[in-house]
Amino acid sequence: MCSRCKRLYPLGSRCEACASAGARRREQKRKHTRPSAWARGYDSSYAKGRAAILADRPLCSLCNARPATTADHVIPLSRGGTNDISNLRPACAPCNFSRGNRPA
Questions:
Q1: CA atoms within a 13 Å half-sphere pointing along the CA-CB vector of 51
Q2: Is 36 within a domain?
Q3: CATH number at residue 51
């Protein structure tokens, strides 16, 4: 019996129609996932710049209240920015994530 549609099916846990429908759903979900950090441009140059920025300035440059845990891009990578240290500034996670991809 198919575990999804409850039709009688002699082999496996799902009939061919339900199995192919599940495969289509998984494929659609895979297509809409976010690319990896490496694919988005966060490579070793970003890691080095982030470490240098956080060591130099420990407070968030946006709110000046919380400790900086991330490096924010002044001009986002998606808008043509680079991982150069002159394009990075220290930011706490809430400030950095709320900015989105807007230029500073």
A1: 6
A2: no
A3: 1.10.30.50
